[in-house]
């Protein structure tokens, strides 16, 4: 379909930099998720690609053609907004057909294309209904059909499922992914939901303060975060402060050996990388157990006053106040926002019952 290239984009509002020197290549047929907290600039990037905001610096290219100053209606892009942005006085078919009418297509061709677009999003036969007669999920399908019917080279989605309940969000994102793969359309998807990005994306771009923190596939983003911010933002992570002296950590429970300079560090350990064992003499005690059906999430109070989370199988049995030992298979070391190393952890204190 198309390749999208962002070159050194910069955008300021009232002398405040919202996007700082951002560059990104999105490959033909790729689905890339822009992920970040509120105010990170992800929606601003999307709006610049769609032509709804003009960058102060840099360039936007689609298939090598500079579209930086091209108005939205003349760009080969289709935009889907969080608010649906549908016209309530029009029928479903009227909403989907609106852009085609502006292009001056014959009525028979418009009718055919609208029917194909509605069938694509699972709304075949809904053309004569009014928008207000549809559920929120159906309205968002109409918005997607309206964007796709124009056969854009680039599909842009700005948190399209944020207002929907969790089960509907999950179903629609699966449908969207199927449609995107079937059409092979290059897609830029903005979300603040980590699960959504991990489920949808070929690659995830994590933004922070208008800059890219990391670009990676979902599995690499989760398993190998390159900064402390990404490690804490993607999924759940335990951060345990301690000091390194002579290549060994001084944490009371975990002996971490790594060739890093002496000084303060944080040990970063995923809950699923931790194993709990009944023990005496560790000073670590179960605080709370939450049963999620597929697994238990156990909060553990540490001797130094800290607390961590461990993921355990649903068959495990732990009670508040129970003393436990902890084992970890993998840990990353951070100093400030920089990753120093990734190592295997030895359990320092464990007197098993």
UniProtKB/TrEMBL annotation:
<feature type="domain" description="ABC transporter">
    <location>
        <begin position="4"/>
        <end position="234"/>
    </location>
</feature>
<protein>
    <submittedName>
        <fullName>Putative spermidine/putrescine transport system ATP-binding protein</fullName>
    </submittedName>
</protein>
<dbReference type="Pfam" id="PF00005">
    <property type="entry name" value="ABC_tran"/>
</dbReference>
<dbReference type="InterPro" id="IPR013611">
    <property type="entry name" value="Transp-assoc_OB_typ2"/>
</dbReference>
<keyword id="KW-0067">ATP-binding</keyword>
<dbReference type="GO" id="GO:0043190">
    <property type="term" value="C:ATP-binding cassette (ABC) transporter complex"/>
</dbReference>
<keyword id="KW-0813">Transport</keyword>
<dbReference type="GO" id="GO:0022857">
    <property type="term" value="F:transmembrane transporter activity"/>
</dbReference>
<dbReference type="Pfam" id="PF08402">
    <property type="entry name" value="TOBE_2"/>
</dbReference>
<dbReference type="GO" id="GO:0016887">
    <property type="term" value="F:ATP hydrolysis activity"/>
</dbReference>
<dbReference type="GO" id="GO:0015697">
    <property type="term" value="P:quaternary ammonium group transport"/>
</dbReference>
<dbReference type="GO" id="GO:0005524">
    <property type="term" value="F:ATP binding"/>
</dbReference>
<dbReference type="InterPro" id="IPR027417">
    <property type="entry name" value="P-loop_NTPase"/>
</dbReference>
<keyword id="KW-0547">Nucleotide-binding</keyword>
<dbReference type="InterPro" id="IPR017871">
    <property type="entry name" value="ABC_transporter-like_CS"/>
</dbReference>
<dbReference type="InterPro" id="IPR050093">
    <property type="entry name" value="ABC_SmlMolc_Importer"/>
</dbReference>
<dbReference type="InterPro" id="IPR003439">
    <property type="entry name" value="ABC_transporter-like_ATP-bd"/>
</dbReference>
<dbReference type="InterPro" id="IPR008995">
    <property type="entry name" value="Mo/tungstate-bd_C_term_dom"/>
</dbReference>
<dbReference type="InterPro" id="IPR003593">
    <property type="entry name" value="AAA+_ATPase"/>
</dbReference>
